[in-house]
Amino acid sequence: MQNVLVINCGSSSLKYQLLDMAREELLAKGLVERIGQDLGKHIYQRPGAQEFTEEAPIQDHQRAMDLVLAALTDDGHGVLGSLDEVNAVGHR
After folding, report:
1. N or C: which end of the chain has fewer CB within 10 A?
2. Rounded distance between C-alpha atoms, residue 75 and residue 45, angstroms
C-alpha cells in the first residue's frame, strides 16, 4: 500500500481524502466545517459504508486534524490500523 493523505484547509473548514495510490483507490474522505465556531461538524465517509457524522466544538485546525486522524484509525469505522500506514501527506 502507498497511502497518501490529501488535505485542503480553508479558513473555517478542512477537507480530506485518504488514497491508496498503488491500487488507485479512495479509502476515505471527509469534511470538518465550522472550525472556530461554537459547534463544528465532522463528516467522514468510506466507499460502501454508512456516513459517520459528529458535532463538537472545534476551536482550531489542530483540533480538526485530531478528529480526522482519530476517524481514520477508529476501531469501528477507520481504514487504518495506525498512522504509520500513511506514507505521505499533501496539501492542495
Report:
1. C
2. 15
